Amino acid sequence: MKFRYSAWAKLLWLTITLYTAACTSQQESLVRRQFFAFGTLVEISLYEVQQPLADQAFAAAEADFQRMHQQWHAWHPSKVTDVNRRIAEGELAMVPPELLSLITEAKHLSLLSNGLFNPAIGRLVRLWGFQQDNFSATQPPDPKIVYGLLRKRPSMEDLTIDDGTISSRNPAVQFDLGAVAKGFGIDRVIEHLRSLGVHNAIVNCGGDLRAIGRHGTRPWRIGIRSPRGAGVLASLELSEDESVFTSGDYERFFESGGKRYHHILDPRTGYPAQHVTSVTVAHHDATTADAAATALFVAGPDDWQSIARRMGVRYVMLVDRHGTVHMNPAMAARVQFEVDPLPQQEISKSL
Amino acid sequence: MTRADWTVVLLAIALLPVLYIKLWFSQGHGQQASIWVDGQVMEVLSLDDPRKLSVTGPLGVSVLEIRDHKIRFLDSPCRGKVCVHGGWLTEVGELLACLPNKVMVRILGSDPRFDAMNY
Fold this sequence. Notes:
Chain A has about 350 residues and is α+β, with helices and mostly antiparallel strands.
């Protein structure tokens, strides 16, 4: 009896140990917080950050995003709409330092992208109806008006940025920083978190993210959602400081006459860029990743490589409208597909 | 070793595949989803039972659909339908929201396959 008792005790102990070991995840070291900011859902994940600091980090990130969103809003009264008004009047605009550095970076990236990323086409974006909180466009705009706006050729090259001021030789320039502000904002928040002593974090702003450090003993691992249908197309393990941005035609769009009109406008035609479903860019800083995802989407399946090279981007995955996945070899080596059967793939030359 | 000791060892070995299978299959599916309205958890639901449910937010009724351990926005009173375009949520930890109607869905579960989702 004595032996049997101890045997059952052992068995019980073993069972409990096994279950505990199997069910205790590493999640306790991971804390997350979600909030609405920047017109989207933001999620901050912190690894091995103790509670008082974690709360401080969450609060700092939320306050930063709210502030930047307010100041850079393209259609609600903001610092950006102030600057736009001055430019339209042909005047010099005084610009606060943070916005000045955002516009300066945006100009640099726009020139690198050969103007395919062009945040000066705010009027066109508004004409299409994408500058609305709860956008409700149902019809493409009158082609004559689109052409009229294109003819004025608003470009970041028109800007003179100088000592806290911006002027434009072209009054048709109107900023819509939607394709770069999120990246720039994430970079600022990451800097802020680091200054607080946070070393392992992901800042995910509506599906675009930058990750620093690691998840304990392993790298951060992200899933890239399939641009059509459900589930995860691919996964990626991130280096210790890397951003991943995807531009797609599937979130903000409307349909008219059986045709999809999405929000990524080709500045050369004034119409939504054709041929591409999504572009994913992995890059060190979020600002470049953000602008590059848009520029490469506009560049399309034939020209993305030359633009990626110009912008210094090393990891690109482009899904064209037929579902073929285009990648450069370095990206192909990192991406792990999560779909069965595997998609059609086309590997480009090295970037 | 007594007979009891052997029994313990055998039972422990027999238990391993059971645990393995249980944990393996529980990993990919988030068994539950939480539904939030305006920052408050309204409901936690199992994703094992296919169903449609209506959630009332400030703008009106958002309709959610659960099928094959997945959940999506079937309809929402917003105009842009970004939430509906978001498609199915499949992964533990995945989030989707109808911002205008302040309705948010999140798949619950331990050990997510991914630390974050990019889209």
